[in-house]
Amino acid sequence: MVDLGANGDEPGDPFEDDPRSREVDLDFPREWVEFLDPVDSEHLVRADLTWLLSRWTCIFGRGCHGIAAGRAADGCCTHGAFFTDADDEKRVRAAAGKLSPATWQHYRRGFANYTEQDTIDGKSPARRTATQGEDGPCVFLNDLDFAGGGGCALHAQALRDGVHPLRYKPDVCWQLPVRRDQEWSKRPDGSKILISTLTEFDRRGWGSGGHDLHWWCTSSPEAHVGTEPMYVSYAAELTELIGQDAYDRLVELCLARERTGLVAPHPASAGGDDTGHGSNL
């Protein structure tokens, strides 16, 4: 494993020229499993085993190249995070109230002062976390050398309080890089069922702009270095997304698949595919 230093973008770093060149292609065979929620016969879970059994792990501050060139220390926090709904806003507001200038480098008092009105689609107004300035990252991002602790101030506060960071962070932040899509589907017999799809939040998840990101971790072998599969390391997040009983069933199916071996393992975890994209670094 090549030592990428604190942020992977140090002068002379051989990977800094074009870190996305080691990413695997976005399209490759995936293995899926479907199962009914044990406590809800109208809820079907479709799970991407290729992704959930991969060895992806967050490498923020230890090899992450960041989504913007020259800003590895931002990680994926270069832009503010859009809130999904009022409950999301309420949770972050409560968490921010626990912060102080000693724990939040860019401390601002009042929800209106650390959020901004913006738009996702260019039409509909939506609120997101503010940035530190016109070209700055998310207002909650502390510098890595900040005395109160580097990285997301909300994340760090959750750890200090002994709770999981998903209780304090915006939905989009704690869910990444898992993508959950939900839709009601009408079956041939006229019955309806809610389908929850769990898969990888790859570049395309960001819309057309995702293809312009300097680097994206889910496709990079540099981030597929976890000591345990995703379904284990992201147990809390997956449970929050589909419920405890459905997650327990997912674990059973993942364990069974691990015993027999995946038909379509993630090429970034497998060290790259046969096109030459990706490698064991």
How does the helix and strand content classify structurally? alpha+beta
Total strands: the figure is 8
End-to-end C-alpha gap? 5 Å
Task: Give the DSSP E fraction (strand runs of 2 or more residues).
Answer: 15-25%
Task: Name the shape in a single word.
Answer: globular
**Averaged pLDDT:** 90
Amount of helix? 10-25%
What is the element layout, followed by pairings?
Elements: E1 32-37, E2 40-48, H1 49-52, H2 86-96, E3 115-119, E4 125-129, E5 141-142, E6 151-152, H3 153-161, H4 171-175, E7 178-186, E8 192-200, H5 230-233, H6 235-242, H7 244-260
Parallel strand pairs: 2-8
Antiparallel strand pairs: 1-2, 3-4, 5-6, 7-8
Write a brief structural summary:
The protein has 281 residues and is an alpha+beta fold. The protein has seven helices and eight strands, in the order E-E-H-H-E-E-E-E-H-H-E-E-H-H-H.
